[in-house]
Records
---
Amino acid sequence: MGQAIPEESEAAAKKNGDSAAGDVEDFKLVGYSKFLRANPRTDRFPVLGFHHIEFWCGDAINTAGRFSFALGMPVAARSDLSTGNLFHSSILLRSSSLQFLFTAPYSDYPSSQTQSPKSLIPSFDSAAARRFSADHGLGVRAIAVRVADAAAAFHVSVSHGARPAFPPAELGLGFALSEVELYGDVVLRYVSYPSSGCVLPSFLPGFEDVADRPDPTDLSYGIQRLDHAVGNVADLTTAVKYVAGFTGFHEFAEFTAEDVGTEESGLNSVVLANNEETVLIPMNEPVHGTKRRSQIQTYLDHNGGAGVQHLALSTGDVLRTLREMRARSPMGGFEFMPSPPPTYYANLRRRAGDVLTEQQMKECEELGVLVDRDDQGVLLQIFTKPVGDRPTIFIEIIQRIGCMVKDEEGREYQKGGCGGFGKGNFSELFKSIEEYEKSLEAKLQTA
């Protein structure tokens, strides 16, 4: 939150966008083996990283409470009746730099009721929130990224084809917010604020920090940040051209059904990234004509269209995080997909024996952690079952090992996407989801 913002006016941002080298008109999937990774640094405006994820739900307190318990994310701030907000309840959870916001509408008040604009998110719409919950169940409404200038990012995006969702609004104290459509009913939210110069709220103006709460590090399970946010769409080519076109994001990775499918189903996937590769936005589409209906199509059917499929949360110790989460699974926490068979771990020493200790490899097998690597690093990952009523959104917990480099000032950091996206694990994930779907189908057939 203290990262310096490069100074750039709206005019300069537009100029930068107009000279972007990325041409998405000729986009065509080539598959993992033929894809050559490059970073042309074609962002149309400065994108500094993920800021928060907003869920729309029917009951913010109880939904936030379950996520807090399941993920070790303490309540950090709120805007609701207790703070003078008559329109919605919004509860913010935070673990290190990861921020989840849960928002639910109140009953409509007469038009004579007024409130200060700074006490709510200006883009919130009660009727839209109710429709969202009815259409999608629990789901992500907004993927918020921090930008240098929310107004400039909005106007540059719209000038390059983005569909506007909410025009730039000043929130006070130098904060600004704007939104454009991403896919389905999900918006890409731009948030900007000064790095210094005054005492800034820990989240957004109008939100009150939770006072007298325990030290958040005492409650944390070790989750540190949002690594990537994955969307499912009906047509990947159209979605990639649209998002890359207005952001300037470059293609970071891609997979086709031949790369990651099983004998029964598959998907195509593209990962888009900002210049610094700190904002990773993968998108998947279903593959048709397979033995089973694609899991992506199942998502689209139950979600009522495109939406966020899963959120990948990064931890510095996936084994510790997973032990904490699994301990709470029987008490209302999140459940996990079935572990792979023992044969999966037979070659684990060959895949990662130079990185993981014998004890770590043993724990990976005991806890059901998947292990993969690319030419740069190692990826440890595990997936929850869907976290809502519908077989839609779920959570991925990951740890990336390796790829440590230094910036111009000598500070060490990890390259984005280190270890890849689990290409070697896709088939195991697919099998787990297929078995989960088959269990649901069996119950429906006997109901």
Note: Confidence is low (pLDDT under 50) at residues 1-22, 115-119.
---
Amino acid sequence: MKEKIDQMIDSLKDDLISELREVIKIPSKKGKATSDAPYGEACKKVLEKIIEITGKKGFATKNVDNHMAYCSIGEGDDYVCAMGHLDVVDEMPGWKYPPFAGEIHENRMYSRGALDNKGPIMAAFYGLYALKKLGVNFNKEFRIVFGSDEESGMADLKYYLTKEKPPIMGFSPDNKFPAIYGERARAKVALRGDFDHFEDFLNKKIFAGDPIINLGINISDQDFGRMILRGKKIFRDKDEYGIEFSLSMPICDKDYVLKQIEENALGLKVSLISYEKAFLEDKNSALVRILNDAYNDFVGANEKPTTTTGMTYAHFCPNIIPFGPSFPGQNGIAHLPNEWMDIDDLIKCAKIYAYAFYKINENFNKGE
């Protein structure tokens, strides 16, 4: 089957690129909400476009009130899915090519959304489409779910889960390979006070040595590793001075972390601005095993499942994990000017996703 998938995806390459460009040309940044466009007209338009594209290829489609949309094949009470997003962040200045044109230069497609996440979710769709063309008999319903508010809080997914039950298995092509079985907790913390205390804190706790050790939060675990502090931002609010920073956290007690920061705040007031708990799947689960084995088998690797500092739909949708599109050793460029995706990687992802869907389907054939 690997050879058949390889040949089929290669035959669909031009169509994939062409239709990805159609989706990319819609500047689907979050806009003003209206009664039928909860994230703005551009986000509504991109969902309508994806329904048009997938419907023409013989898939059943559904628009979930312009929050998310999906196409599907196969039948059953439960479904498997790939879930990605079609909304994008602002293009930012500094582009050498138009940010919503999908131009290809030196075998790279440059555009906002090329990598995050229009390219990868279209690759997942074409992976499923390739299996359809190969005549695979699907033993469950298989969906490709397209979101439109991932970049701004994932309200689209939260709405979707009030209208549709969650999948029993699936992935989000919005991070890296191989299988990702966990995403760290995240916290944003602020400390503020008068200038003297603020200056003392910066000099002794932030700029002198390792802030993680200085703040008493040098915590690690076996899945995520060590606490990470980043995104430092200094501010002034009337007569108070302060600093905000983000923590990328292993599994630990949030309240203990805050207490440790308070004990090392040198007179500053500490406040928790936001917090998202960690997502952690059993790394020996069937889902992690099937996806990781599919990746290794298709590319001839021996990678182990891993975790990430990123946050995808998998953080809030049961029974899915991040899976691609970036390969080991590649650096993240998703939100930067001149975002791009290598065409060879796009096609390779489509093949891996097709094979992953095939192996999931085989798993159900065995009654597992």
Note: The chain has a mean pLDDT of 96.
---
Amino acid sequence: MEILSADLRNKSTISQPEAQDQGDQVEQPAAAGTTAGGAKKNKKKKKPAAAIETESKDDKPNRDDAEGDDDDDDDDEDGANATDSAAAKKKKKKPKKKKTKVTQTEPPTIPVSKIFGNKIYPEGEICDYKEDNLWRTTNEEKRYLERQTFDQYNDVRRAAEVHRQVRQYARRNIKPGMSMIDICEMIENGTRALVETNGFESGIGFPTGCSLNHCAAHYTPNTGDKTELQYGDVCKIDFGVHVNGRIIDSAFTLTFDPVYDNLLAAVKDATNTGIREAGIDVRLCDIGAAIQEVMESYEVEIEGKTYQVKPIRNLNGHSIDPYKIHGGKSVPIVKGGDQTKMEEGEYFAIETFGSTGRGYVHEDMETSHYARVYDVQHVPLRIPRAKTLLNTINKEFGTLPFCRRYLDRVGEQKYVLALRNLVEVGIVDAYPPLVDIKGSFTAQYEHTIVLKPTHKEVLSRGDDY
């Protein structure tokens, strides 16, 4: 202890130049590492108070002179590094902006492919088959077959989602006083935007039907038609959407007067009955019998008169093939008729029509719906205008149905005689409006289903119907 005190006393009396020399010598090891500096600092804490006092008086000015500049530089560098490091960390920790969910506009303009960014579209209503086909649900082979056709199902589900969004907007916004042309264009413009119309890859499946009252089907206004929707009307809205030729065909009935509620309920119930009865190996005539039984169980009172709701016996549901709205099979809505069976993989439009009239329709009024015959053979055309019109039909519509307004839209003019000629020679089919007796009211509901290997899927089902 005496020796240590003597050393400290000697150290405290070192002259100015010697202190500077020692400071220079100590400076290099200190810069090399902080461990030695840290140890030295710990030793200083154990020094007697008197020695610390002496050192602080004598050495402090010398150390400031010798080491002050270098320490300041080191502090500046350390501070700058610390600031840069903190800034870098701050940048790294900056929270990522969450992707905002795309929602549909009003009116609908955003394609469903933008709303469903992963391009996987929602399933419709999944229904089990009846008891004799329940084994399909868990059968591994059938499940494998279903996975193999996922892309096909995804295409038609995309079309179904377009249909749901467009029709829900239409149901909210169609009001009495609107012209029928405005109603159709509202639906068709929404469909084109949401499905991203692109030639035969995607687009409208067939013209928008808006048949009124005793007219049950196949009416859409031609250019110049000034018909307006009235409060007391019963309006059938029937429109289609396709993706890669896979067509969604779905319809609903719109009314404003609650007097027609039972008429609508009868037809909706009948359509759901047809969907419930449909399945693989089910006979078409059995579906028709079930539909008729349900529909005829309803009555509707209009202006003090009671009517039994009758199924329109010469209107049917139908199978749907790629780019062909009416396939080879018909689904009756009355008993009797075709005993053909439904088969695995087929698409069907289950649609029913109810009427307060005779329950039988005939052709009337000006024709608006047309379609090129699906498997027509080559037919020589003598009228040059008919040839150019046929080229337009092949280019724009192919075998998908179209109407006169669509020809106007693509720039065709003075085509009526040419169109009539194409109908006469059998290249194009005309579909005039179908009407029951005047003064009667008709209603329609329709869904598209697919008979998958494991389940039945009601593709066009929505919250509305």
Note: Residues 1-71 have pLDDT under 50 and may be disordered.
---
Amino acid sequence: MAAATLGSSAGSASPAVAELCQNTPETFLEASKLLLTYADNILRNPNDEKYRSIRIGNTAFSTRLLPVRGAVECLFEMGFEEGETHLIFPKKASVEQLQKIRDLIATERSSRLDESNKSHKVELSQQPATSTQLPTALSSNPNGLTQHAGNSEGQSSNPPSAPMVTADSVILKVLRSNLQHVLVYENRALQEKALACIPVQQLKKRSQEKVSRARKLDKGSGFT
């Protein structure tokens, strides 16, 4: 509830941050971390040009921000502008606006991390204490079969159960992260944008020319 309240209050000052808050906790924390890195680099090095541009083809940007709802919009609200191959933070952009959006994201991130830590502590406190059991003494019957002490009929005890996969499992976190990356390729808008940059007709024409030359060189071939 607290995170939702903060998200709505941030929305009154920044629609982009409010939209960013609609993502899952894991996605929000990962994207917000990168957004804060971009903002802090500029604030700490205001005269360094290399921190004022983000290459759109950068792996971190394309996988951790581009598919995340509201993430790129946060960069635009900070003052970044879209270039041909980069997002640029121009010299005319307001550093105060950058600081404002950065602080809204940082406040929301801190709140969610605090909630996550509190929830984790509550879960640990609710777990029943496990009693330490000494290994059961073994005895051998006259027939040479090994039995557990106290089990006169020689029946084997139940095998230990496999450890359960919890919501905080590292494997699940990796799977969720990979799923977000895969979904990038299912984004229709990005597919259309990519196709607009690819000379499809020119590539088809070249391939047809190569097939035609191959047929002339080998008339008996089955090129299609």
Note: The longest strand covers residues 53-55.
